[in-house]
Amino acid sequence: MKPDPASAGLDERQLERITEHLQVRYVDAGRIAGCQVVVARHGQVGYFRSFGAADRERSVPVDEDTIWRIYSMTKPITGVALMSLYERGLFSLSDPVTRFIPEWADLKVRERAADGTERLVDPLRPMSVRDLLMHMSGLGFAGGPSLTELFSAENSRPGEGLAPWSRPGRPATLAMMIERYADYPLEFHPGTHWLYSVSTDVCGRLVEIISGQRLDDYLRETIFSPLGMTDTGFSVPDSEVGRFAACYRRDTGKALVLIDDPLRSGYRSEPTFLSGGGGLVSTTADYLRFCRMLGNGGHLDGARVLGRKTVELMTANHLPADGDLASVALPGGYGEVGMAGMGFGLTVAVAKTPVATQVIGSAGEYMWGGAASTIFWVDPAEDLIVIFMTQLIPSGTFNFRGQLKTLVYPALID
Questions:
Q1: CA nearest 191: which of 68, 264, 96?
Q2: Minimal CA–CA distance to 390: which of 56, 4, 12?
Q3: With contact defined as beta carbons under 8 Å apart, do 17 and 25 qualify?
Q4: Which tens digit of pLDDT belongs to each residue from 80-100?
Q5: Which of 157-171, 221-235, 385-399 has the lowest mean pLDDT?
Q6: Measured between alpha carbons, how far is 116 from 138 in angstroms, rounded to an integer?
Q7: pLDDT digits over 321-333, tens only?
Q8: Average pLDDT, integer, range 126-152
Q9: Is there a smaller number of Cβ atoms within 10 Å at the N or the C end of the chain?
Q10: What is the 3-state secondary structure (H, E, C) of 56-108?
Q11: How far is Cα 369 from Cα 376, in angstroms, rounded to an integer?
Q12: What is residue 27's three-state secondary structure?
């Protein structure tokens, strides 16, 4: 990608502050091994830069085509897949999930009293497809690890890929997950709270049930092939492993520690569990094409994936009373963005106003991130797309989104 700041309506000198910031404060300081940033506007790439090492142990630099674990940045892709079936009239957002997953007909809700006692009760209303797309389904982690525990040092063993449900010797499928969750109560009544959990993996299973195809096949035929996203998938082929970045965490002394070696990673083989919530790898160029499709109203270079009004529906705030995540999130929950001033659509967070979020930007910009500190946002008001790739677990270690926003928005010159 060859940047042209002027054509993108961006000030080159201001953009170079991104370079200094990431190189000095993060790469040279040893806080991350490497990263990559693209800033695009008006259909033009205004800034694209690679920093540091993709694989520090083998001295492999980050290159234009480095392959990254995008974890939860898989979620908007799964959301687009499911909404493409919505456009075919195959379901309504208000449909009960039991229309497609009858095994869940008898799900109960765990209610907790002030004295700590619990009881199981019937849901106040059925879980809907929209609840799943919004993380308001009531689903938790079914007695398994929380997100914090899943990506802790104790669970971050090399060679496992750090993808949910993909532990060695324990093969699983989306269908098996559905069976397992039939045995666990919901954490709250559907539609009453927001809790980031496995809801989007269930959306991936709905794609399979409604389409009659495996999730990977449907994503490839409906999104990846039409958009030319040739490096996006659930595994890294042997021929491309040299482009696959290593993944790190920081130890108690804040030194980087390798937790997923590209050559030993679980992503080297096709998974049995096709995680619609966090299973994909991709490149910056591929994900930019996905974001450009959304920013263009569902089409790119002659390929239409969604209709314009469907994209508008996905990226509107669906929270009750046009509220924010802070008003509905279950206490102790986790998200890839801040809670204050942040609405939520169908698999993406949606900013209300910069005053409400206390971060520079625009009302209506939509975004998400991944467990390895990857982020993206699309700002329709400014025709702006920003993608940041790195491989540091857990996300939230550093406020890359907030820092990049303070550096990117002052570069707008039209």
A1: 96
A2: 56
A3: no
A4: 999 999 999 999 999 999 999
A5: 157-171
A6: 19
A7: 999 999 999 887 7
A8: 76
A9: C
A10: HHHCEECCCCCEEECHHHHHHHHHHHHHHHHCCCCCCCCCEHHHCCHHHCCCC
A11: 6
A12: helix
User: Which tokens is 174 given?
Assistant: 């989306």
Query: Which residues 6+ apart lie within 8 Å of 13 measured at CB?
Result: none
The SS3 assignment for 143 reads: coil
Whether 330 and 190 have beta carbons less than 8 Å apart is answered as: no
Distance of CA 244 to the CA centre of its chain: 19
Question: What are the b/e assignments for 374-402, b being 16+ CB within 10 Å?
Answer: bbbbbbbebbbbbbbbbbbbbbbebebbb
Q: What's at 315, amino acid-wise? A: T
Give, to the nearest 10 degrees, the angle between helix 284-295 and helix 75-86: 40
pLDDT in tens, 200-223: 999 999 999 999 999 999 999 999
Residue 142 is predicted with a pLDDT of 59
Helix, strand, coil: what percent of the chain each, to 5?
Answer: 35, 20, 45
Question: Residue with structure tokens 């995008």?
Answer: 70
Other CB atoms within a 10 A radius of the CB of residue 281 amount to 24
* Cα distance between residue 270 and residue 237, in whole Å: 9
Q: Residue 313 corresponds to which amino acid?
A: L
Over residues 6-25, the pLDDT tens digits come to: 999 999 999 999 999 999 99
412: tokens are: 């707008």
Burial class (CB in 10 A: 0-12, 13-18, 19+), 189: middle
SS3 375: strand
Other residues' Cβ atoms within 10 Å of the Cβ of residue 175: 14
Residue type, 136: M
Helix (H, G, I), strand (E, B) or coil at 153: helix
Taking the CA atoms of the chain, what radius of gyration do you get in angstroms? Answer: 20
CA 112 from centre of chain:
31
Indicate if the pLDDT at residue 360 is higher than 80: yes
Question: How many angstroms separate the CA atoms of 232 and 311, rounded?
Answer: 21
Structure confidence at residue 160 (pLDDT)? 45
Handedness of CA 347, 138, 199, 339 (dihedral sign): positive
How much is the pLDDT for 116? Answer: 82
Q: Beta strands of 261-310 (E only): which ranges?
A: 281-282, 299-300, 303-304
3-state secondary structure 324-348: CHHHHECCCCCCCCCCCCEEECCCC
> What is the Cα–Cα distance from 300 to 227, expressed in whole angstroms?
7
Integer Cα distance of 68 and 231 in angstroms: 10
